[in-house]
Amino acid sequence: MSSRALTALKHAEVIVGYKTYVELIKNIIVNQEIISTGMTREIERGAAAIDQALSGRKVAVISSGDPGVYGMAGLILELLEKKGELNNIPVDIIPGITSATSAAARLGAPLMHDFAVISLSDLLTPWEIIEKRLEASANADFVIVLYNPASNKRNWQLKSARDIMLKYKAPSTPVGIVKNTARRQEEIYITDLENMLIYPVDMLTTVIIGNKSTKAAGGFIITPRGYTV
Amino acid sequence: MSSRALTALKHAEVIVGYKTYVELIKNIIVNQEIISTGMTREIERGAAAIDQALSGRKVAVISSGDPGVYGMAGLILELLEKKGELNNIPVDIIPGITSATSAAARLGAPLMHDFAVISLSDLLTPWEIIEKRLEASANADFVIVLYNPASNKRNWQLKSARDIMLKYKAPSTPVGIVKNTARRQEEIYITDLENMLIYPVDMLTTVIIGNKSTKAAGGFIITPRGYTV
To answer: How far is CA B102 from CA A51, A109, B109, B145, B189, in A?
Structure first.
């Protein structure tokens, strides 16, 4: 967490968040009021945060990783716009460390060259669009970072994504899988496109697939930047 | 800066970095030795850091943003590998907030959906590869984040990139330009593909180009995640 985020939480009068994330910051909570709801209740949480802010209170909405990457920042702005309150409440978006780069740091340096970030969740996005982005980014030799590779209800998307990768990338292309990045029970696997499906993945897992130059060495995944070393 | 990065700097015996970045953390320096060199001296800095570490000292190599995104992390690992020392020195990569997400936070929420990160610097990468990635990501409707859009010596790449964007994206597509993100003399511009070239850009500028759903409203750029709000 950045010191800016910590300061914002300490100065908040109300903290709004998914209950699992509220649990992670409980040592920061002194006398802030907490509004927490379950997963998939994002709109409800956003509306509650706005109601509190409109009543004049300082509200902190928490998100894991970076609030601007598949997080709560956009939804709050969309809800404010719909209510016609977009310029009536000061909104400060505090960036954080998104899983693409926190997972990358645990794997070595896979993101030293151009990369694409793609969520495999087809709850809000048609699978055809996700498929097109997987094809395009694999064909143009991006390093590819997959968010939300699977959940209890979604179990076939990662295999489909990997089959698309294999049309353009070698089976030996390094793949890094990080589950629960930087949290308790973190799991880190370094594998390749051919073998990646034997590892457990869930909503809290990030999968990073190399480009043509990416190599695995000494327990690290390294994508060369192009320097002659 | 994260608290982990701050702790690492405080515990280091030697800090190695590009002189401009060393300047930014001078308030943290107590009695750590400083090794700083100019820009484009990355390999020299990396080699110096490794020499210090091999002599048994605790070394912190600093990078702006996230060291794993076009930063020093990969080069250090590559140099260690070449020396056959990859598993002889413990390396801890501490993730940071990369410009894609720190610039996004200043603009609103442009990265709420799949995005591609592309460096326009053709010093280490052939322009043909950069061009292919620009084409592929624009065609697949990614939000696109451009790093290193221009320098004193490179002045035509951003126009070329924008011309490729216009083959696939509407001239009215929102574009955000952030110079010196979160530093003194920060500049923020919200414009569109048609007008983006009139703004000043340099190596410390990040350019974010929306997807088909991205909109500009109330001084913010918002890419909807797909919720029905």
So the answer is: 27, 20, 11, 12, 14
- DSSP code per residue over chain A: -BHHHHHHHHH-SEEEEEHHHHHHTTTT-SS-EEEEE-TT-HHHHHHHHHHHHHTT--EEE--SS-TTSSSSHHHHHHHHHHTT-TTTS---------HHHHHHHHHEETTSS-EEEEE---SSS-HHHHHHHHHHHHHTT-EEEEES---SS--SHHHHHHHHHHHHS-TT-EEEEEESTTSTT-EEEEEETTTGGGS---TTEEEEE--TT-EEETTEEE---S---
Chain B residue numbers with beta carbons less than 8 Å from the beta carbon of A133 are 114, 140-142
pLDDT(A111) > 80:
yes
> Where do the domains of chain A lie, and which CATH numbers do they carry?
3-82 (3.40.1010.10), 99-222 (3.30.950.10)
Instruction: Give contacts of B 16-75 with A, CB under 8 A.
Output: 42-43, 66-71, 73-75
In total, the C-beta contacts within 8 angstroms joining chain A to chain B are 219
B93 with A105: Cβ contact below 8 A = yes
Residue of B nearest to A105 (CA): B93
Does the beta carbon of B140 lie under 8 angstroms from any beta carbon of chain A? yes
Mean pLDDT of all residues in A171-191 = 93
Chain A, 100-129: which have a CB under 8 Å from a chain B CB?
101-102, 104-106, 108-119, 124-125, 129
Which residues on chain B are in Cβ contact (under 8 Å) with A76?
109
Q: Which residues of A touch B47 (CB under 8 A)?
A: none
**A66:B217 CB<8 A:** no
According to the model, what pLDDT value does residue B37 have? 84
Per-residue pLDDT of chain B (229 residues; tens, 9 = 90+): 888 999 999 999 999 999 888 998 989 889 999 999 877 788 999 999 999 999 999 999 999 899 999 999 999 999 999 999 999 999 999 999 999 999 999 999 999 999 999 999 999 999 999 999 999 999 999 999 999 999 999 999 999 999 999 999 999 999 999 998 878 899 999 999 999 999 999 999 999 999 999 999 999 999 999 888 7
Q: Do B224 and A113 touch (CB under 8 A)?
A: no
Q: Does the structure show a pLDDT above 90 at A20?
A: no
Instruction: Tell me how far CA of residue A78 lies from CA of A62, A115, B213, B214, B229, in angstroms.
Output: 16, 27, 12, 11, 7
